Amino acid sequence: MFIVKIRASYSAAHRLCREDLSEEANYALYGKCSNPNGHGHNYDLEVAVAGEIDPATGMVINFCEIQQLVDSLIIDQVDHKNLNVDVAFMRGVIPTVENMARIFWDILTPRIRNGRLHHVTVGERNSNMVTYAGPSPARSKLADS
Ligand code: NI
Questions:
Q1: Cα(57) to centroid of ligand 1, in Å?
Q2: What are the chain's domains?
Q3: Which of 33, 52, 65, 119 is catalytic?
Q4: pLDDT at 142 > cutoff 60
């Protein structure tokens, strides 16, 4: 199996907060990311597709195909936006990197025609990254094994 990866970046504003909590409780939970007037991050995104080589092309998937999907479906939607208010697919979601990785996965996975989506990593900086590799197996399946 091969894993083909592309990287992209975007800049966006957000505020992490739960409406049902006080400002103090939000600060305790989210730290500086709960700043009431928001703040920005430079986000790094990695998208990985797993598959086997197509002998006709020598490729698993063309890098350009993944890049175009990521640019049109994600980067164009989130770059230089406020994630709490500007982005339809983030509406009602606390804009953590976990939630972004999960939502980006849900958007991309049906659009990958060669191979299958392997993981999506979103980082607020190189030292803070989250990788989503799809839903966990059902609890009952784990109990069976
Ligand atoms: Ni933040």
A1: 42
A2: 2-144 (3.30.479.10)
A3: 33
A4: no
